[in-house]
Specification:
Distance between the termini: 29 Å
Largest sheet: 5 strands, antiparallel
Number of helices: 6
Helix content: 40-55%
Order of helices and strands: HHEEHHEEEEHEEH
Radius of gyration: 22 Å
CATH architecture of the largest domain: Roll
Strand order of the largest sheet: 1-2-3-4-5
Structural class: alpha+beta
Shape: elongated
Number of domains: 2
Strand content: 25-35%
């Protein structure tokens, strides 16, 4: 999916900040600069959504491998159970059961990926998490309350796929906000750092 620089408002393009270059030429379902018609609960009418990120698929690698293993196991069970037990019905029953488990894991993983989003606006950061079925949690912090931003990548795979976690520490006793296993963590850190400077300077 390509990204046009036309999606970036002119006022940001004119700003002498490196974060604009991080937003140009990048637009995937896990890294969406200036998404059109983006809305969330509590969004102000004049608030500009700058970036929406989701967990990179590499963060779901264990679930993906589990689903692939179960699909292979289902077909293997269908073939060998029928031969060893002499019953097509038993093999078919086990096949459908294992396939149902694989489908359930795949669907829940997709829902977690789709609905767990991190939002950066010109006013705040928002972390929306679906911890389990029917369990919703949203954490937000105003830009002027953010005190520290840390990007962390651990391991060869994280560096190879360029995924990591961004920790956002806020003032007061509130727990820090985490953007877990997102793409381009260093770029996201730089985007936030520049937005904090612009906010303090009264430019946004």
């Amino acid at each position: 999916m390509s990204n046009s620089n036309q999606n970036i408002p002119e006022k940001y393009v004119k700003m002498d900040k490196s974060f604009v270059s991080h937003l140009q030429g990048k637009n995937t379902y896990s890294f969406m600069p200036f998404p059109r018609n983006a809305k969330f609960a509590g969004k102000d009418n004049d608030e500009q959504v700058i970036l929406v990120t989701r967990k990179h698929w590499g963060g779901f690698l264990s679930q993906i491998l589990t689903v692939l293993f179960l699909v292979i196991l289902a077909f293997a069970t269908l073939i060998f159970s029928s031969r060893l037990l002499g019953s097509v019905l038993i093999g078919l029953s086990l096949f459908l059961l294992i396939l149902l488990i694989a489908l359930s894991i795949a669907m829940f993983t997709f829902l977690k990926w789709f609905y767990n989003v991190n939002i950066i606006t010109d006013q705040r950061v928002v972390d929306i998490d679906i911890k389990a079925l029917f369990t919703y949690q949203a954490t937000e912090a105003r830009l002027d309350k953010i005190e520290d931003i840390t990007a962390k990548q651990v391991g060869m795979l994280s560096n190879f796929f360029n995924i990591g976690t961004v920790y956002i520490q806020t003032a007061g006793s509130k727990a820090e906000i985490e953007f877990d296993d997102i793409a381009n963590p260093k770029e996201v850190q730089d985007i936030l750092s520049d937005l904090l400077e612009l906010k303090k300077g009264g430019e946004i």
